[in-house]
Amino acid sequence: GKAFRNEITPRNFIFRSREFEQMEIEFFIPPGDEAWKEFHEQWIATSRSWLESIGLRPELLSTDVHPSNKLAHYARACTDVMFTFPFGTQELQGCAARGNYDLTQHAEASGKSMEYYDEASKQRYVPHVIEPSFGVDRLMLAVLTSAYTVDEVGGEERTLLKFHPRLAPVKAAVLPLVKNKPELLAKARHIHERLQRRYYVEFDTAGAIGRRYRRNDEVGTPFCITVDFQTLEDDTVTLRDRDSTEQRRLTLPELLEFMEEAIDA
């Protein structure tokens, strides 16, 4: 949800601002001096795994464990997942073991018991909590930073965004090889409309095919689908991968299956 902070010096684009989106989880666990450690470590590992699954580069991620003298008075532990931005390594996510402080404060203020009866252990207790917390704006900036890439293809420098297919705003571009052949345009339109039922897909006829590939690389489109004269003969298309630039021929059913696996799996 929306969060606000009395930030004196907003800076570094959307990294530090007075108004931002925040998401967090209150994960309740049993009490005990040792129980929280396992859950805390699990959430740190799960958070890093999830960050990598949406495209953040592992070499840009690290962790920072808060020393005991820097913890809030109620906290058992706190570990930040850090990310190396162009302006330095900064906090991306916090993961705190907060004890039962939150619920005891609620109980005191409301006069209502926050005890929970555990059927498995037959015990009644006030749960403790592990709280992973993300700034959505910072996460978006980290995604852009991880995706931005400059490489070389065919002796020429290429700038691209290596978005994970799940996050890419445009999932694919359908490109008829030429725009002055009605039969090619009709076939390309049919494929475009078929894919549009499920994904956001662009249709592009402007310029040479190589220029269209580069335009889509720059906005992070994972796949380009070229409809050419062979398509009219055997109903196959050329699928080009953004990152590797490799191309292969697929039938329409194979293309639909590939897109589902790459984006939705």
Provide the structure class: alpha+beta
Number of helices: 7
Span of the ends, CA to CA: 27 Å
Order of helices and strands: EEEHEEEHEEEHEEEHEHEHEEH
Count of individual beta strands: 16
Give Rg in angstroms: 25 Å
Overall pLDDT metric: 91
% residues in beta strands = 25-35%
- What coarse outline follows from CA principal-axis ratios? elongated
Helix fraction, binned, reads: 25-40%
What profile does the largest beta sheet have? 7 strands, antiparallel
Low-confidence stretches: none
Description:
The chain is of the alpha+beta class and 265 residues long. The longest helix is centred in the first third of the chain and has 19 residues, at 35-53. A hairpin with a 2-residue loop joins strand 10 and strand 11 (156-161). The two termini are 27 Å apart. It is built from seven helices and 16 strands. The strands form four sheets. Strands 1, 2, 3, 4, 5, 6 and 9 form a seven-stranded antiparallel beta sheet that branches. The radius of gyration is 25 Å and the shape is elongated.
